[in-house]
Amino acid sequence: MAMITDVSLTQMTEAEGLAFAREVLRVEAHALERVRERLGVSIARAADLVYRCPGSVIVTGMGKAGLVGQKLAATLASTGTRAFPLHPAEAVHGDLGRIRAGDIVIALSQSGETYELLRLVPALRRLGAHLVAITEGVASSLGQAADLCVALGPVQEACPLGLAPSASTTALMAVGDALALLVSKMRDFRAEDFALYHPGGSLGRKLCHVEEVMRTGAQIRRARPDETVRAVFVRLAGPRRRSGAILIEGADQKLLGIFTDSDLARLFEKRRESELDRPIGEVMTANPVKVEVGATIADAVEALKARKISELPVVDRGGRLVGLIDLTDVIDLVPAEPEE
Length: 340
Fold this sequence. Notes:
340 residues; alpha/beta; Rossmann fold; 15 helices; 41% helix; 4-stranded mixed sheet; 16% strand
């Protein structure tokens, strides 16, 4: 396959620049396909070692491979494996103390000849750690020194000079992902486990349980079915974190129905003001859409979106009211409707 030609961007038109960028992606995609074809059972054996590791998985590499290693360590950690990155230069200045007998060290080097990694080998042997190499070939110095080598084969860089790590680091990262995700599959790692390690950001919020964010206590407007609509609104008047719904519950605290601000507005729109003095149980929406404790915020958001509602009661397994999810609490997680 011909190498991308070295052409100054200042001499390129936008169309030529786009063509160049697309060619980079083509070269890297082709490299990944070749690596996929060459990948052997060593990847499964490496995953088994990581899965059975009683200690920690230490990922190391120099330069760009080291940055890929940081990503691999982070992916392993976030999918259930105790993993940490280790800079090889810092390792020989004391950080080898992080490694214990039985730990697994994953060393990344496309050439397999990185000096900073090779000089760690004797120390790793003395410490009783196992060495897994992800490199170009088993015949490389690192491949020969490792207990197990995951060989990628030769990879042509996308760089016009053939020098800057590009396709090779893409291949290293992809194989690292394959290893980490294979281990997570072996662990039967689930969305609930993922949520445990990702409590922050929108991803963490989607995976957390409704009881962690629902409104409770005085934040919920509750009523008995025999109270009149007018009496309920008078009783619940006053400063509070307001929701757009009144939840009607029986003497046993089981959820019976819901009466929303929209329901109230419709009474006035249809000139049915007389119903304000009727029991709220007669004008409520019975058996409303609800979720049980243990459901995820993603489940709640889907219910709100699918039914086009703004309030979602939360009940326990016995049907008793325990909380409320209001649309305003999760609005940032509701996907926007596509424009027509």
